[in-house]
Each structure stands twice: as structure tokens, then as C-alpha cells.
Amino acid sequence: APVARGDIVQHVTASGTLSAVVSVDVGSQVSGKISVLNADYNSPVKKGQLVAEIDPTIYQASLRQTEGELASAKANVTLKRQNLERKKTLVPVRAASQLDLDQAVSELAQAEATVTIRQASLESAQANLGYCKITAPVDGIVIARKVDLGQTVNAAMSTPVLFTVAQDITKMNINASVSEADIGQVTAGQLVYFTVESFPDYVFQGKVT
Questions:
Q1: How much is the pTM?
Q2: How far is it, in rounded angstroms, from Cα 67 to Cα 74?
């Protein structure tokens, strides 16, 4: 062959895992049995779409209980307030002592504090019932489903992950481990050519970030 000038190209090779640039884990804040499952692998989902539901029976019962406790506490406040008004009319005519009046004031304050506590319990019960409906936090595609219909999830110690949703699978990341001998030659913006096992005859292109 005739002598000619050309380029010498050095390749840095590495392997890694392919993943979505942005993926969101969808979890459950309450424990219970999965009663509804509306998403599966590769299901497209919209933000706010119902993807699963925890059996709400226990949380509905808890809500009714706290509603009853709040109603009882409010009724007790009414009673204590009426008792205080009676003491206020009896003390000037010496039909009741100042101690009785002070005690009535204290009892009313305690009853009102109980109402505040019961109201907070009601709000907590309402929130837990709402958490039974698991919705998609973002638009995307389900790339992992980690529960089955009828399975019981336990959110006691940590939030169990039910689904993983990828926001945009047209943009992917490769997390690759490059050897120490080669990493000094790798800079941001360099072109990358890679293949994946599912498409062995197709060469993809990317950039180093």
C-alpha cells in the first residue's frame, strides 16, 4: 500500500447499566392489602392517575371512630360551658364558692383542648384514608412493578416501593465503570457508541456527561 497520513484512534471500552435519566419510586404511606392494581410493566401513566389502592376498610372504620370521638368532645364542651355559666350566676349570690367557679373554668379549658386533640386525630384519619389511593406522581411509563394484587404491604418501618415510573425513556443514562488506566482520557462531551443485548445489531450513540 502506498504510504499515507491517517488518524490513530484509541478506544476506551467499558460496560454498565442502562437506566432512565429521571425515575420516580411510587410508594405507600399506609399498610394493608392491595385491592386494586391498575398499572403493569410498560403501562403509560399520567400524573394523578390511580395506579393502585390499599384496602380502605380499616381506615374507614378509624375515620368513623374519630368522628364519633370528636362529636362527643364537642358535646362535653357544651356541657362544661353551660356549667360555667351556672357557676357565674351562683357565685354572686353565694350559692357556689369561688373554687367551684375556678374548677368550672378549668374543666371547660380541658374540654376545649380535648376537642383540638380529637380534631387532629380526625384529620390524621382522613389523611390515612386518602393515602389508600396510590396515584402516579409524574407522567411516564412504569418500568418496575414490585407488588401483586392481594399482596400485603407494610409501611411500619419504611415506605414500601410499589412501582418505579420513568419520566422519559427516550433519554437514558449509562452508569459505567471505567478503569483507572483509561479514565484520564475520558472528558465530558466525547462521543460514545454503545450496544445493548436486546438489540445486538444496532449501534447507539451518546455523549459523556
A1: 0.74
A2: 11
pLDDT score of 148 more than 90: yes
Q: How far is CA 186 from the centre of its chain?
A: 38
DSSP the chain: ---------------EEEEESSEEEEE-SS-EEEEEE---TT-EE-TT-EEEEE--HHHHHHHHHHHHHHHHHHHHHHHHHHHHHHHHHHTTTTSS-HHHHHHHHHHHHHHHHHHHHHHHHHHHHHHHHHTTEEE-SSSEEEEEE---TT-EE--SSS--EEEEEES-TTSEEEEE---HHHHTT--TT-EEEEEETTEEEEEEEEE--
The pLDDT, as a whole number, for residue 91 is: 81
User: What are residue 148's DSSP bridge partners?
Assistant: none
The dihedral over CA atoms of 98, 103, 108, 109, expressed in degrees to the nearest 10, equals: 110
